[in-house]
């Protein structure tokens, strides 16, 4: 703005000197050509930098306001669905309607799945607290740069694949040990969140419990397979959120592009994993109903409640992380 004011002042009538212009009539063309060339060069430079300037421009409130608006709309939709399906206004049969005709083995499978889910949350919380008190572990999980990110991703994916690849058997065996290892690693990765403070994390845990409880109620009160057809769109949305999360690690949220990616990762991720929880809840019930009662007769593995619980376990962790980040200030603090 100051440069524009200065250029405008140079064109003020009181500063122009007609007698000087009359004395330089012969070189008037030269001066005009020089002025036009300079103006054209400046214009071409500005055009080349327009896209870059937009991308690296200081972040405003637009991206975060859009994210908050989408989150508010999703919350209203969830409350409306809870009221609609909870009051039994849907005429289609729901999971609750089917539970009266379930064989005992179906009930046992669902019960075991949610027992492992609750135990996974408890082990992760204990692991996070223990890791937060270990300087060596904290130094490892808080290491920045490409190598730190690569090691974290490799640890999470490696333990997860190991856990899911082992055949399930009752009691305490290799499957349960791999499950404890995976949940322990997830807790260690969440250990830096302890710096947010106990009161804030407790609030985030209660909010997460309310979200998970409400969405689970919607899933069991809705028609049995209503959310099972969301797998394709949810997979595409997961790719978008994953790329946005990676991009927000390298682009500062003080820029317009970085703020947009961070908003997608934060608010879009919360909506995405809430939808995933609806899908995965109904998928657990459908799998428990349709899996063979005697898997050995069909030559397949026994029903695996640990693998079934991992999906809703990861959904819950992702919801908790984003709720805690929003309570801590979210994008508003990241912009400062």
UniProtKB/TrEMBL annotation:
Highest taxon, organism lineage: Eukaryota
Output the InterPro entries linked to this UniProt entry.
Bax_inhibitor_1-related (IPR006214), GHITM (IPR035871)
What's the protein here called? Growth hormone-inducible transmembrane protein
Q: Which family does it belong to?
A: Belongs to the BI1 family.
Subcellular localization, as worded in the UniProt entry: Membrane
Could you list the residue ranges that cross the membrane?
114-133, 145-166, 178-198, 204-222, 234-251, 257-278
The uppermost taxa in this organism's lineage are: Eukaryota, Metazoa, Ecdysozoa, Arthropoda, Hexapoda
UniProt keyword NAD, yes or no: no
- Predominant location of this chain? membrane
**One of the record's GO cellular component terms:** mitochondrial inner membrane
Q: What are the protein's UniProt keywords?
A: Membrane, Transmembrane, Transmembrane helix
Q: How does it sit in the membrane?
A: Multi-pass membrane protein
């Amino acid at each position: 703005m100051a440069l524009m004011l200065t250029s405008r002042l140079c064109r003020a009538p009181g500063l122009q000197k007609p007698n000087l212009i009359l004395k330089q009539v012969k070189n008037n063309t030269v001066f005009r050509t020089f002025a036009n060339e300079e103006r054209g060069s400046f214009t071409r430079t500005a055009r080349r930098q327009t896209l870059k300037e937009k991308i690296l421009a200081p972040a405003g409130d637009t991206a975060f306001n859009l994210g908050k608006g989408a989150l508010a709309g999703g919350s209203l939709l969830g409350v409306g669905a809870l009221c609609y399906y909870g009051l039994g206004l849907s005429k289609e049969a729901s999971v609750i309607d089917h539970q009266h005709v379930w064989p005992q083995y179906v009930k046992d499978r669902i019960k075991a799945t949610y027992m492992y889910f609750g135990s996974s949350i408890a082990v992760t919380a204990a692991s996070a607290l223990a890791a937060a008190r270990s300087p060596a572990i904290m130094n490892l999980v808080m290491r920045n740069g490409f190598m730190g990110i690569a090691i974290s991703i490799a640890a999470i994916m490696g333990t997860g694949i190991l856990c899911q690849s082992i055949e399930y058997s009752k009691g305490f065996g290799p499957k349960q040990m791999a499950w404890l290892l995976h949940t322990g690693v997830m807790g260690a990765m969440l250990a830096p969140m302890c710096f947010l403070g106990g009161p804030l994390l407790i609030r985030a845990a209660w909010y997460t419990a309310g979200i998970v409880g409400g969405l689970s109620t919607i899933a069991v009160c809705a028609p049995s397979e209503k959310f099972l057809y969301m797998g394709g769109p949810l997979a595409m949305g997961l790719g978008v959120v994953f790329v946005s999360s990676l991009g927000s690690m390298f682009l500062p949220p003080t820029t317009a592009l970085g703020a947009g990616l961070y908003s997608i990762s934060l608010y879009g991720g919360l909506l995405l994993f809430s939808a995933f929880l609806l899908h995965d809840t109904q998928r657990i019930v459908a799998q428990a109903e349709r899996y063979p009662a005697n898997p050995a007769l069909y030559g397949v593995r026994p029903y695996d409640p640990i693998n079934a619980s991992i999906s809703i376990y990861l959904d819950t962790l992702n919801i908790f992380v984003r709720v805690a980040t929003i309570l801590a200030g979210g994008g508003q603090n990241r912009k400062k």
